[in-house]
Design goal:
About 85% of the residues lie in helices and about 0% in strands. By secondary structure, the chain is mainly α. The longest helix is centred in the first third of the chain and has 18 residues.
């Protein structure tokens, strides 16, 4: 689906408004055509871009719809990624408690599938949720798991994000010497 690929490109180069327009158009067109897989993919990417833009209510509604579509058509991996992003939307909107179940379910599903990147992202997002709740010791463990998984895949940019989470946790726990 060309509109989805174009939206991904716009998102990757930082034109989130352009990406949103393309993903909205792709979702609408796929829905009209009855292509539920493409609609779910477009809505998932749209929801994630809403998260990046700080539009958490829109992100949550859009990602929930994408999750429903993927559940209906049996797209387990895509559904798990929608759960990850829905969990992230909840974390960023201040509903970290609601995020735990979504993220835990996603990580478990991705572990069964052997999806290391998805597992790492889930650990990172769980760390963020715990950080928002002030559960610094457990957050540090999740960030550590994320860093290990990202590093095992050679994804150093993502690993640095997890290391930053570990440093925040160490500082919050008054362990500045390990930060």
């Amino acid at each position: 689906f060309v509109l989805i690929r174009a939206g991904l490109h716009f998102s990757e180069v930082g034109d989130l408004a352009g990406a949103v327009r393309l993903f909205e158009e792709a979702a609408a067109l796929a829905g009209q055509l009855g292509d539920r897989r493409s609609e779910a993919q477009a809505r998932g990417n749209l929801g994630y871009n809403y998260v990046l833009l700080g539009l958490y209510s829109l992100a949550e509604a859009t990602l929930e719809r994408a999750r429903q579509l993927t559940a209906a058509i049996g797209e387990r991996r895509m559904r798990a990624y929608h759960l990850l992003n829905l969990g992230l939307a909840h974390v960023q909107s201040g509903s970290a408690g609601e995020a735990h179940q979504l993220l835990g379910e996603a990580v478990a599903e991705l572990e069964v599938m052997g999806d290391t990147f998805g597992q790492a992202a889930g650990q990172l997002y769980l760390g963020l949720a715990l950080e928002h709740e002030g559960e610094w010791a457990t957050a540090a463990q999740r960030f550590g798991a994320a860093e290990e998984l990202f590093s095992s895949r050679g994804m150093d940019g993502f690993a640095v994000t997890a290391l930053a989470g570990q440093a925040r946790a160490a500082l919050a726990l008054s362990h500045a010497h390990t930060a």
